[in-house]
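User: I'm new to structure prediction. If I give you an amino acid sequence, what do you actually give back? Let's try with this one:
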Amino acid sequence: MAVAPRDSGYRGIWFTLGQFGEYGDKYSGGLGTYTAKHVPLGVYSPESEKTFFVYGGAKGSERHLLAMVSCFDHRTGQVPKPVIVHDKGLSPNWGNTTAIVNDPHDNPSICLDEFGHVWVFVSGRGKVRPGYKYRSVRPHDISEFERVTEEEITYPQPWWIPGKGFLHLFTKYTGVRELYWNKSPDGREWTEDRKLAGMGGHYQSSRQLGEKVVTAFNMHIDGVPDTRTNLYFAQTDDMGDSWQTITGELIETPMADRHCSALVRDYEAEGRMVYMKDINFDREGNPIILVITSSGFPAGPEGDPRFWTTVHWTGSEWAFHEVTRTTHNYDMGSIYVEGDAWRIIAPTESGPQYHGCGGEMAMWLSQDEGKSWEKVRDLTSDSPRNHAYARRPVDAHPDFYALWADGNPDEFSESHLYFCNQAGDVWELPYEMDGDFAVPIRVHGASG
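Assistant: Good question. You get back a string of structure tokens that encode the predicted 3D arrangement of the chain. For your 448 residues, that looks like this:
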């Protein structure tokens, strides 16, 4: 254990997948809050009055990934210099001791246990690079961390169930991307990994409500991620000992039949692709899944029409409602429930790099359970770089409602980090800091 090193400001990782077509890369840009499968990226702690959050940072603004953690102090309105929990250039790859990781697939996720300790789950990349679990030495304090494990985990999604411990959903590369889970009473001793789904490959998004954890996921035909389709849902209220459909029917795991009882919609039969974004609960505790559906995987008009869609269990059926259209499969936003009102914060508007990932951030509101949506505010405009991957903290505080990064998808660029409040006012986290603490800079919204 040692005092964690600090960076001198908030700088996100820039990345290119390198799969170029006529309209650019399949996805690229400022991906500090990537991927949609890293869940959660923030959590509000009422005991400390802080929102703790993680992101993929960049060492010296270069393509060198740092797993970062920080917090916003709601009492002071300040942020500290961010903490480097793990330097992906200092830990060797399995079988390769020279590579420096520049890939945000290795970004971290975050969770707080009931004692206030901050846990950072750093993703690995299949069997190529290890993942790690870190625990803060003191509750509600990010100045010192201990490494708890080094293991094979990708897309970590940790959930702490009070009185029971961790239920961790994640992905393992077994030739394809398959879904697994395990659990731990304290984060130190873990059960064996158990497979949840293996129909050829999957991407998932999960959430917690009390002792219930739900996951929504798609399926990759013959293991090819660019064929992702179908929509599935499963839930557990006993730490993964059993899994059920939305109606309570027991699911046999691992799920291997693409037409199993967890299937919500057969998009494969419709020739549509499904990109997972977020999942939340209505005021009755029924799930709301946010997805983008598309007709093709490359960037550009080949995938049009692309629909932002809410998939809501009404208590008797799944209801599908279009929010708006979008220009890119990897646009990513979050859905919020505020009593009877539903809110989405996402890069739904065209940005300066039109065919690239992300765009301008906007806020949408529905007062009728997703049946109709109205754009109520543009959060950014006239930006030099596309904004991408707006992320919702657990128990989001109205003053720190979404976190995201910007970047130029067409060429290497700086990547700045931002957050907004519930009203849609936007602040930039300081790119460079002279002191130990700083007040974020308001960049959009009412003055004050």
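You can read the tokens as a compact description of the fold. Here is one thing that stands out. The mean pLDDT is 96.
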